[in-house]
Amino acid sequence: MQAINHAATALVLKRKFPSAPLFGLILATEAVEYLWVGLNVIGIEHTIINEEMRSVADVHLVHMPFSHSIATSALIAVLVGLFVVWRGGRAATAAALAISLGVLSHVVLDVSVHAPDIAIAPFLGGRYGTGLYSNLPLQALALETLWGVVCWWIYRGGWRLLGLMLVLGVASIPLYSVAISVGESLLGGQSTVFALVILVQMITTSGLVWLFARDKQKPVPIANPVAA
Ligand SMILES: [Zn+2]
């Protein structure tokens, strides 16, 4: 799932847990992806990209048992939550829970669109994923963009934030459409370059979501009968 739509989950968590810092929540929703970038760059996890990359269906996340298994995600979520409580004390319990949920949300959302490439635990057989990315990539993009918009709506975000989500969704169509080649020379076969492109995308998106989430929809003013 795209960085913007993972980050959108942080908006819902911020709405439900106002004491949690929004930027921390955004980072939490992407925590396992940052780990995935690092593990790909040093060669512990592997991605295979077809020489001609036409869509996300040509990206094969063949080995990511540490960053993207259900068990390791849950473990990271618990450890990060405990760290927040350790640093902030009992007053930070709600924020810690929100941040843990943010970390865990990543793998749940990935399963909803990925090819079956997510294991229950490292080295355990069986991979899970709905297969939308490999079979129906454009429908997957529509679904994940819809998730982002629903999160924005729950958060009652401003129009700039909605615009960002929709513009990034439309700009991603070449990556999700089999009809449009992303480019043989650009990313085809370059898994480390691909991981670094994802890193830049995550950092940029996180900053923009955090910035645009500051303006929220104004509450509808209630008419004052005394002043009327
Ligand atoms: Zn992921």
Which terms would index this structure?
228 residues; mainly alpha; two-stranded antiparallel sheet; 4 strands; globular; binds zinc ion
Gist of the model:
The chain has helices at residues 3-16, 22-29, 31-41, 70-88, 93-113, 132-135, 137-155, 159-171, 173-176, 191-212; strands at 46-49, 59-63, 118-119, 127-128. The chain is mainly alpha-helical.
Beta strand count: 4
Are there runs of 5+ residues with pLDDT below 50, and where? none
Taken together, the total number of domains comes to: 1
Oligomer status: single chain
Radius of gyration: 19 Å
Topology as a string of helices (H) and strands (E)? HHHEEHHEEHHHHH
What percentage of residues falls in helices of 4 or more residues?
55-70%
* Beta-strand proportion: 5-15%
Distance between the termini: 51 Å
What compounds are bound to the protein? zinc ion
Major sheet characteristics: 2 strands, antiparallel
The strand order across the widest sheet is: 1-2
What is the residue-mean pLDDT, rounded to a whole number? 89
Overall structural class, as computed from helix and strand content, comes to mainly alpha
How many DSSP helices? 10
| Broad shape | globular
Report on the architecture of this protein.
With 228 residues, the protein is mainly alpha-helical. Helix content is 59%, strand content 6%. It has one domain (3-206). The strands form 2 sheets. A two-stranded antiparallel sheet has the order 1-2. β3 and β4 (127-128) form a beta hairpin. The radius of gyration is 19 Å and the shape is globular. Bound molecules: zinc ion. Zinc ion (ZN) binds at residues 33, 68, 106, 110.
